[in-house]
């Protein structure tokens, strides 16, 4: 795929003699269509919301390769097949989907002179189709949505906008952002040109400031998000560190988190998609502060830093740099925002500085380039290039990279864009974003720990090879169809950045034979890149980045997404014939084999992992090998700096940046955040975000306590002490069992009552709990039940245990109690609703959904409560025969996990702080800076 030859082609209707690519077959066989070498099968796709059983999507008889998982089948059929369901126009086979997309690329490439002959175009077509149906790579989602359809041919997932200091520009920003959201993509913008709230308008009034205008944009994004677009709106808002309003910007989302907690504690529905969450602002964007080297050096030296006027450029405020940096870390500690973008590092690697600075990024921070531009993405499945003998297939990887870059550049030729400004910039600079997925699985399969020198060396080598190959192919394309329009103006800085990449490759320290071979190949590619680029220039101002690869990661059946390590060692797998099962990651036995373990030990270790979800104390596994199996979460999780170091290892070999959030445990401190952000700058990262577990559900506000009347202290006297008498329950008594779910953890409450009046016993049980927790819950149940029988009022327990916070916490399946801060918090709120009078509950702040609605409408909640109570009294009580005993365990049904995240929580004994999918109810899992749903492929961002 690297040779060129003379050939005639037409470009834009004009005949001209040009060179064209002479394509070579690498994956396919002459005379055999790639589809004919695959076993295909028909499947039925029925996707349901497991929480309520509703059917989200249904299509029968779809055709997919037998090797594709059911999960990949469901996501592709529901997300990417075009045409109305139930009509002949509806796509039903993967062949149709791939033909639609690949056919458009081939025809466009032939028309615009990319290929030397028609035969070369056919080779390109077959190679591209082979790569797609064999899951070697995937284009980003907009390609599958739009290419080859009657809709706009939008191929980009990432956009950067611009805003000037005028009302017209600000309103244009709202409009352009809305158009992008409607198409299912995301956008980022830097608001630093807008004058601060302390500066004057030309009319003499005071300016609103960028944070004020963020409010309107946030409301717009929230409205469009709820309008049924392909995926939820995703956006990034950036402000420079020297803007006078930077402190207000830093604290914006942290203040809103305080509001969320107050609303939740007051009984409002602030759950994801809840009716009251719309009153909370700034929740639809990721916020980042653009910090300069000058500011970071001021932090390092403990000196002052100047904030400058947007209208005059003069210093208007002097702040203490460490204090301002501390505020960034504190706000991020509280609510995960803001992240940091390192301005000077970003612009030092900028290939087109003569055309403007890089001031913003896309929502996930991996695409950084000019304002009013876009980037289309594609990701390679790295695990597909690991041979059966566990060596990396360098040649095939290079050839696939060449193929993908060629296809991606062709797409810019026919693509449509949401605005004329974006179309003009993108066609002039032709930014591409090739990346990869399954790095974590590749490292584990080859016996490399993610947080190790060996793991980082291999990752850096692969990244360097990918980008060197991509830019070499870009230089070859420049010799065929010309360099990008902005190249002439930026030739010298572009060459400088190419030399920086090549120099970084020369500095790579190899450790094993695998990465030595890859670095040797990368060196050859960079040499060819520099030589060819010097002669031809480059076709693309940008070539590579690392995206989240959420939905397309599932399409390729990847175990890990983007640059991420493995999420957990045990996965939840859907079966073709229906149902599901848990499986141990296939990389694990491969890793154990590479580490020298015999088959008998491998089987025993895999069985242990299947039962426990981790490797600690696995039979025969040496402790020095534990690190190979460390995951993002669980019993052995990768330390935060392990993630930062991995990003630093690959960043010098990427045109853009990396979509990744560094997760830290809940007990992490503000000082930890400061250290991570500071080290990110020192290590040369372009952007960095840190997320602390459970920071989005902060500590509850202090609960109001009932006032106690002052009593006159009695004179000392001898008194007779009366011991309380236990009022035992009869052998036959009414009881009620309630099932519940709190933050994905399911359980049961069985409450027994006295026949005349009052609660007398409580049994509490959590599904899939370990023996220790089961014992603790039994003991707790016994203690509460005996105390109730000795006369301790239920309201005392409600007062003490509501608002108690610990994991699992979060969303419940109870319409009266939408959010719970812990299982104990939920249980005693539920008991209060069922067994206390309205007056008692009102004093404790526990109201039902109907009562809260009446209160919000200005009605008397007591009337609602009285009506409900009258209904309850007229209904017969359900009773059960039971023997007198200390509180026992109710029968539990086998409640299984519904996705990998819940399975990992069950096995690992932790709670993943991730939202539920608004489409199917499945708990999402992290993917770069976003979240992705394993059930339906929906994402929370632009991946």
TrEMBL record:
Highest taxon, organism lineage: Bacteria
Record's keyword terms, sorted: Cobalamin, Cobalt, Disulfide bond, DNA synthesis, Nucleotide-binding, Oxidoreductase
Principal EC category: oxidoreductase
Domain Ribonucleotide reductase class II vitamin B12-dependent N-terminal: 45-135
Segments of this protein annotated with the region Disordered: 1-21, 876-896
E.C. number(s) listed in UniProt: 1.17.4.1
Domain (TSCPD) ranges: 731-834
Required cofactor(s): adenosylcob(III)alamin
PANTHER family with a match to the protein in the record: RIBONUCLEOSIDE-DIPHOSPHATE REDUCTASE, VITAMIN B12-DEPENDENT RIBONUCLEOTIDE REDUCTASE
Protein's name in the database: Vitamin B12-dependent ribonucleotide reductase
